[in-house]
Amino acid sequence: MKVILIAGKARSGKTKAAHILKEILETKKEKVVITEYSKYIKLFAKDLLGWDMISEPKPRTFLQDMGEYVRKLKKDTYFTERMKEDLRIYEHFVDVVIISDVRMPKELDELSSFQPLKIQVVNDLASYDLNEEQARHETEHALDHYQDFDYIIKNKTEKEMKEILKEIVKEREL
Questions:
Q1: Angstrom distance (rounded) from CA 83 to CA 76
Q2: Residue 109 sits in which domain range?
């Protein structure tokens, strides 16, 4: 099973990149699943706030605060350990797992045993609808100086992103 990690800030295009990759890989007859580290805190938001996990605006402050609380409570291992467990299950059912919401260095580094492909999506041109407090949050800056990405896709349209991702799939023989 191949693992692809897509990192970036809010509104950078991570989810769009994940869906484009899934589409490309499925044309090659690969079984692909897109998952998120944040699915666990989104479930908390559903249970505690009644959020349907789809509607915008997201309860971003709650999600940031809950993620921070869980990381402190579990010494930064909760999300990565849960994802490792999920990956061990997925490997029996799919060819490729795309994790579409990487925000922290540990979320990249702690999955090294799966030899993931690490992609950063940067979009300095996107509309950025975070308030000042949300924009200052650790999850918006934790990867600012991370150096170990295999690919960085910066300021690309959806069409350009699709062409770049096709090249990555071809180059990496995914």
A1: 13
A2: 2-171
- Count of C-beta atoms within a 10 Å radius of residue 171: 10
Query: What is the phi/psi pair of residue 97, to 5°?
Result: -115, 125
Count of residues in the chain: 174
Contact 169, 28 (CB under 8 A): yes
- Amino acid 26: pLDDT: 97
CATH of the domain at 73: 3.40.50.300
Quote the pTM value: 0.93
Mean pLDDT of 154-172: 92
Side chain identity at 19, as an amino acid letter?
Answer: H
Backbone angles phi and psi of 8, in degrees to 5: 165, 170
Q: What tokens appear for 40 in the block?
A: 């666990």
Query: Which H or E run contains 110?
Result: none
Number of domains observed in the structure of the chain: 1
Adjacent-strand bridge partners of 68: none
